[in-house]
Amino acid sequence: MARAVPSGWPRTYCFAHAGGRAQAFVGWQEALAGVTALVAVVPPERIGIETVCDQIAERIAAHRTGPFLLFGHSLGALIAFEVARRLGDRPAHLIASGCVAPALHPTPRMVEVAGLDGQSLTEAVALYGGMRPEIVADPELQEFILPDVRADFRMVAEYRYRPAAALPFGISLVNGVDDPMVRRDDLADWSRECVVEPEMHWSEGGHFYFEQHPEAVTDVIRRAAEALPVELI
């Protein structure tokens, strides 16, 4: 997970959606050069979400040298949130994309999808734009990909929110205006998770709005990184 980071650059740890690869977010590095270094977080293994978050937090704490950011999309945002809780009051900022408030997890739809298999699971994930057409059309490719997708959805389905102290740093929420998985009302309870009101950002597009509009995320990351306390970097 960790890698060499240029002096003076805070890290932005990136967490992917169910079945996704956080390495894809590292492609945004050019847009953020000179501000932050993007680090893809790959869970050690797909086990219970509590254990995954414990292990990731331990690894980040072991390598962190200054202020940092956490960015996650969908399942990745939920994991990033739980990791933020475990890392405590260190200078940071959380950017949650495509994710309802943690207290609303798991949503009924997530529980339903977690119980699907085969073509039914493929079609459910494809409905939100999370499955490339060539995979939807190829059962052999699905055999390789679906086990990880199913395991990720089951992690969400098993999640149980626990009230805790509000995070002592800011949260930015980024969502697509046409996302069928996240309604505006679903974001209200994020306000209980930090000491200041979360920043709201909206982009054209659906659940995977950033595929066409990566700047919707990179602009938020840039502003958050530039606001970190320089004297601690």
UniProtKB/TrEMBL annotation:
Organism whose genome encodes this protein: Streptomyces inhibens
Family: Belongs to the thioesterase family.
InterPro entries in the cross-refs: AB_hydrolase_fold (IPR029058), TEII (IPR012223), Thioesterase (IPR001031)
Domain Thioesterase, first and last residues per copy: 13-222
Protein name: Thioesterase
GO biological process terms held by the UniProt record: lipid biosynthetic process
